[in-house]
Every structure is written in structure tokens, then in C-alpha cells.
Amino acid sequence: MGNLTMKPQNMFGVVLWSDAAAQKAVIWCEDQGELAFYTPADGSIHDAPVLDAGDLIRFDVIVEENVRTARNPQVLMPSHSPDLPGKLRAGTRETANKAAPRESQKVVHLAQYFDMDTPVKIACSG
């Protein structure tokens, strides 16, 4: 089942990283799911738009072999969020430097069941 290709879905997103020379980009998607990766399809490399970090775009997202791929990107607003990549990096550092997050009631400590010295936790959904 990992090789299934899903029907394209129209999506909005913001470019987090791009390499203009290689015409590649990584895109944050509006549905807050996995990031999408963009590389122009064969034959359209000269028609492909130049994507820059912070651009607001609309694109088709396709899941191929568990990877989200962006196709047919259209730049809606260049430099919409040029500081987004920096804010995300700063937010990651701030989160990492804070004390451990509060424990959820949906966390199961396996050490009590298996006589382990080091606690192992599994988050349960539902």
C-alpha cells in the first residue's frame, strides 16, 4: 500500500526553502500535514516558476510512495512571509530550551509493566 498514488488535491502553502539554481523547494502546506517537495517535471523545467522562501503559492499536491509532491505551483503573493523560516527555527530553539512539557493523561509509562530501569512512554490516541 505504500506505493499508492493519491488523486491530486489543490492546496495553498508557503515556501520554506528553495534552491533557484536547482529549481527545488520545500513547502509548508495549509492542512498542517507533511511538507511538500517541489521539483519541476521533465519537459517543464523552462516554464517552471521561480520559488523563493516566503512565497505564498497554490499547487496540486500528490502523495507518491508516502512523499508529498507539489505540482503546477502558482505564485499568488511573492515574499508573503519572508521571515517564516527564521521564525520556525527560532520557535524550535525556544521550545527545545523550555522545561519538559506537561505530561498528558494519554501517556502510558511502560516501565511499570516491564520492570525497566529507564521509563519508556507511548502516547495513546483517542
UniProtKB/TrEMBL annotation:
Segments carrying the region annotation (Disordered) are 74-103
Regions of biased composition (Basic and acidic residues) lie at 91-103
The name this protein goes by in its record: Cold shock domain-containing protein
